[in-house]
Design goal:
The protein is an alpha+beta fold and 288 residues long. It is built from 8 helices and 14 strands.
């Protein structure tokens, strides 16, 4: 989809359908609502999938999709990726390329945090009211998760069953997708401050597209993979996801998931956390 460099050539090489008519903003960035609308309208199969181009899949992915689709009429499938450095083109012509890739991921890969969402698999027609997010500029993926959770449909985390390879890559200063390359010198202000964001071990000032995306997503409409209500385990079994007894997970449920249903609780919880942080900073400042 789209008219970015190389898209048409790749479609021609592999016999894929090329859809160039995607709405863009004034910066030339494709809009998420147009991508999802056009893709669902043009799809010929009942299940569709959005996936980032730096992701590598194995057949485990399709097996997981078939497992979920056989038991649920409406769903969202997602999962954590494994970051891996691949220095040369992977050889897909060898009979053991999948086994080799999974072994390589297990040995050298690093499981990414649940905030990184690289694919969305769902029944065609499920997303009909997506805001005009700029693709790749923060928050749009979190909103997609919130939308399904708010509607009460199952969100299935397939991290345990399906290894997803994310090829590590650099962000050129003039082509950083998520922010403008303007470094901020402080490293002691928390994860975010105003229009600044901690990214790739440094502070950066957000660009206008990222700030616009953020403005479209209220605090209680921002969810990640930890909002999943179901999962497929290592043995390929689909089941409910119950609470994980880890402080970070429980904190996330209180901060982000509970407010989906009780916005007032979310506001109160964030105020409590803000006061606690302020008191902690005050206490540190008072130390001799």
């Amino acid at each position: 989809m789209g008219i970015d460099k190389g898209v048409a050539e790749v479609c021609e090489e592999f016999g894929l359908i090329h859809i160039s008519g995607i709405d863009r903003n004034e910066y030339g960035t494709p809009l998420v609502n147009s991508i999802f609308q056009v893709a669902q309208e043009r799809a010929t199969y009942p299940i569709v999938c959005y996936i980032n181009s730096d992701i590598m899949l194995t057949n485990d992915f399709m097996q997981a999709v078939e497992t979920v689709a056989a038991q649920m009429p409406r769903f969202l499938i997602l999962g954590q990726r494994t970051d891996i450095k691949i220095n040369e083109a992977w050889n897909f012509n060898t009979p053991d390329w999948e086994a080799d890739l999974k072994s390589f991921l297990a040995q050298k890969g690093t499981l990414h945090a649940p905030s990184g969402i690289d694919y969305f698999c769902f029944p065609r027609g499920m997303y009909t009211d997506v805001p005009p997010f700029a693709i790749g500029r923060l928050e749009w993926d979190n909103w997609l998760v919130w939308r399904v959770r708010a509607q009460g449909f199952p969100i299935v985390d397939i991290t345990e069953a399906v290894p997803i390879a994310h090829q590590n890559h650099e962000y050129a200063p003039d082509k950083i997708r998520k922010l403008d390359a303007q470094a901020v010198n402080s490293r002691n202000q928390g994860r975010a401050l105003g229009s600044n964001l901690w990214f790739n071990d440094g502070w950066f000032e957000l660009g206008p597209e990222a700030q616009r995306n953020i403005a479209l997503v209220p605090e209680e409409q921002n969810l990640n993979i930890w909002a999943a209500t179901w999962k497929i385990d290592r043995k390929g079994r689909l089941g409910r996801r119950w609470l994980i007894l880890k402080p970070a997970y429980l904190y996330y449920q209180l901060k982000s998931v509970v407010p989906v249903y009780l916005p007032s609780f979310g506001r109160m919880f964030r105020q409590i956390i803000s006061v606690a942080k302020a008191l902690l900073q005050f206490g540190r400042a008072k130390r001799p």
